């Protein structure tokens, strides 16, 4: 992707799996060392347990519920699930008592969640790692259950019991909402390497679990204080493994963008990279990223590198893979290796990649639909950046609209649009769009081809943004996969602000040269409305190649039928008067069906 400085945009990072720049609404809800249990047992992956606590004794923890009282607010410790969401608590290894976080019940009318609160659960006494036989080479490990909504769930430590630093959070886990996502596995095992936060001979530490909203700028809105609940059990301090390379991020693609479908005309070299962290105690020698495409069609690796303990390094393959410009499917197997046997191989395993070279389709999404992008009752646009490597004419943009009970509303008017990018300012510059399109039930959960009004020539070495949008609520765009920051975008109509999102909208470029040929050969030569906008009456002017009956349907913004009429057309130009005098002010849509062809036009009544 060409480097772009968005100097004139307010490009705000969205929550890792929050697909819009707004909060989720309720409708989206689907000084002495502490005397813990010192087991000194060998762990399978992470070494020796120096300290553990399973909440058997409430007194080993200090709860601060920010002035709230009652079992429905803040942290509590028992063996009963007290919140509104989960019928039972965490399925932890130890069983018995556990800690639970609750903040009222949003299903009540009105919801009872407390606002402007920070709930903390802290060890009552510090944990003396050195006295327990450890060094800074330790990790915090615990089991948890729950789900994310608009809340911030953090893990913190302190060496004085007053000043706490955040060492991790659950921002890497999905948000659970009507748009998709999931609850945590029960239990979810969390491990946080503390070595980089501690000195070589660390002072005793306190452990804290903290809960509040992730959207403090919207603190007066009760929705940002909703939580499904958060359960904690079996908290441990364990020694770090001897050898442990973990992958913190990985990337593949061309010029910073990953494509799961690439047209033969846009094939370009693909590179692979991975960022790794040495969380083990030993230096890792000759660490490499290895890549195998289609069982040996391409074999690549990064240069061997030595990574000291607690250091990070980016591994990039020395050679790139250039697929032949022929249609084919590819499977990429990636792995991390070094001279040592990794004690915890699960955290450096890389999932296989699958992509294809196609005739005409250019896709950033991975075709595995999960959740959707929407904007409540407001209009928006959502889509992806695409780099062009060879001049080509674009005729359509393909999209997928979410279906189901929480999917796109039937009758919603949508459009597809293409932007280029000003190389000097970074502004998105309008290039083309489709005709307005009224969503029908058969348009949901399918690949919808939206033909541009006029084909657009795209030029090599340029980047374009393809979006699908709506002027009002009702549109829900299917998501499939994840995007690197500032490569997939969301435009909020009310604020006229661009945001970036890290879920990939199903919005694709379609270079098929046959798109529109059937429509161009229909009996409709052209249709227009005049006057438009209108203060009173309006007429439809239509040129037909042959005579016949046309069905003319007038719809309002919600897709509700206002009127329907038949018109007898003759070959040549026809003028049909529309009964618009008594319509209320607003936006309407005129659908014309004639000889198997359909045309939709927007009509504005003042």
Provide an overview of this structure.
It is a single chain. The strands form 9 sheets. Strands 1, 2, 4, 5, 7, 10 and 12 form a 7-stranded antiparallel β-sheet that branches. Strands 24, 26, 27, 28, 30, 32 and 33 form a 7-stranded antiparallel β-sheet that branches. Strands 14, 16, 17, 18, 20 and 21 form a 6-stranded mixed β-sheet that branches. This protein is mainly beta. It has 4 domains: 31-239, Jelly Rolls (Sandwich); 245-359, Immunoglobulins (Immunoglobulin-like), CATH 2.60.40; 362-510, Jelly Rolls (Sandwich); 522-605, Immunoglobulin-like (Sandwich), CATH 2.60.40. The chain is 1% helix and 45% strand. The two termini are 44 Å apart. The protein has 1 helix and 42 strands.
Flag low-confidence runs. Answer: 1-27, 30-45
| Overall number of structural domains | 4
CATH class of the largest domain: Mainly Beta
**Distance, first to last CA:** 44 Å
Characterize the overall form. Answer: flat
Provide the CATH architecture of the largest domain: Sandwich
What's the rounded overall pLDDT mean? 89
Our count of helices gives: 1
Tell me the Rg in angstroms: 29 Å
Largest sheet: 7 strands, antiparallel
Secondary structure: elements and pairs:
Blueprint: E1 42-43, E2 47-53, E3 61-64, E4 73-78, E5 98-103, E6 119-123, E7 138-146, E8 151-158, E9 165-169, E10 188-193, E11 206-213, E12 230-239, E13 245-253, E14 261-263, E15 271-278, E16 284-293, E17 298-301, E18 305-307, E19 312-316, E20 328-337, E21 353-358, E22 361-362, E23 372-373, E24 378-388, E25 392-399, E26 413-421, E27 428-433, E28 437-438, E29 448-458, E30 462-472, E31 477-482, E32 488-492, E33 497-500, E34 503-505, E35 507-510, H1 517-520, E36 524-530, E37 538-544, E38 548-555, E39 561-569, E40 572-578, E41 586-594, E42 597-605
Parallel strand pairs: 14-21
Antiparallel strand pairs: 1-2, 2-12, 3-6, 4-5, 5-12, 6-11, 7-10, 7-12, 8-9, 8-11, 13-15, 15-19, 16-17, 16-18, 16-20, 20-21, 22-35, 23-31, 24-30, 24-32, 25-29, 25-35, 26-27, 26-28, 26-30, 31-34, 32-33, 36-37, 37-40, 38-39, 38-41, 41-42
């Amino acid at each position: 992707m060409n480097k772009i400085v968005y100097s004139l945009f307010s490009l705000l990072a969205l929550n890792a799996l929050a697909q819009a720049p707004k909060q989720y609404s309720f409708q989206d809800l689907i000084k002495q060392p502490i005397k813990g249990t010192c087991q000194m047992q060998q762990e399978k992956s992470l070494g020796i347990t120096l300290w553990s606590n399973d909440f058997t004794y409430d007194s080993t923890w200090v709860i601060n519920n920010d002035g709230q009282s009652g079992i429905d607010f803040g942290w509590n410790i028992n063996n009963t699930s007290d919140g509104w969401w989960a019928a039972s608590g965490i399925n932890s290894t130890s069983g018995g008592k556990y800690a639970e976080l609750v903040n009222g019940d949003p299903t009540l009318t009105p919801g009872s969640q407390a606002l402007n609160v920070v709930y903390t659960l802290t060890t009552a006494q510090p944990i003396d790692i050195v006295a327990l036989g450890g060094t800074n080479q330790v990790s915090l490990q615990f089991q948890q259950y729950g789900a994310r909504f608009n809340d911030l769930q953090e893990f913190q430590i302190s060496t004085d019991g007053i000043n706490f630093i955040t060492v991790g959070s659950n921002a890497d886990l999905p948000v659970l909402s009507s748009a998709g996502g999931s609850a945590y596995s029960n239990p979810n095992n969390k491990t946080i390497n503390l070595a980089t936060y501690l000195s070589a001979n660390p002072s005793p530490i306190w452990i804290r679990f903290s809960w509040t909203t992730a959207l403090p700028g919207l603190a007066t809105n009760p929705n940002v204080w909703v939580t499904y609940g958060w359960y904690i059990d079996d908290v441990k301090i364990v020694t770090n493994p001897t050898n442990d390379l973990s992958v913190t991020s990985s990337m593949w693609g061309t010029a910073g963008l990953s494509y799961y479908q690439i047209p033969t005309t846009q094939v370009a070299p693909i590179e692979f990279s991975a960022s790794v962290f040495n969380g083990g105690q030993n230096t890792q020698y000759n660490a490499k990223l290895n890549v195998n495409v289609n069982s040996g069609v391409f074999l690549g690796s990064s240069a061997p590198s030595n990574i000291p303990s607690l250091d990070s390094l980016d591994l990039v393959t020395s050679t790139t893979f250039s697929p032949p410009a022929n249609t084919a499917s590819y499977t990429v197997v990636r792995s991390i290796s070094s001279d040592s046997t990794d004690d915890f191989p699960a955290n450096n395993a890389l999932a296989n990649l699958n992509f294809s070279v196609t005739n005409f389709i250019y896709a950033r999404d991975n075709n595995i639909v999960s959740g959707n992008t929407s904007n409540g009752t407001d209009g928006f646009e959502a889509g992806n950046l695409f780099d062009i490597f060879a001049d080509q004419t674009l005729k359509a943009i393909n999209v997928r609209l979410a279906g189901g009970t929480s999917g796109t509303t039937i009758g919603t008017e949508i459009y597809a649009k293409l932007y280029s990018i000003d190389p000097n300012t970074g502004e998105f510059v309008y290039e083309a769009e489709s005709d307005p399109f009224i969503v029908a039930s058969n348009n949901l959960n399918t690949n919808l081809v939206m033909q541009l009004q006029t084909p657009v020539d795209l030029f090599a070495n340029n980047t374009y943004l393809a979006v699908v949008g709506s002027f009002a609520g009702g549109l829900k765009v299917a998501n499939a996969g994840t995007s690197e920051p500032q490569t997939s975008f969301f435009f909020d109509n009310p604020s006229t602000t661009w945001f970036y999102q890290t879920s990939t909208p199903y919005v694709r470029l379609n270079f098929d040269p046959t798109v529109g040929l059937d429509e161009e050969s229909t009996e409709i030569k052209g249709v227009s409305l005049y006057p438009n906008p209108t203060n009173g009456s309006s007429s439809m002017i239509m040129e037909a190649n042959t005579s016949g009956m046309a069905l003319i349907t007038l719809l309002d913004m919600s897709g509700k039928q206002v009127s329907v009429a038949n018109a007898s057309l003759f070959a040549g130009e026809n003028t049909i008067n529309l009964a618009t005098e008594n319509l209320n002010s607003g936006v309407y849509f005129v659908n014309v069906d004639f000889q198997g062809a359909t045309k939709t036009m927007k009509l504005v009544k003042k």
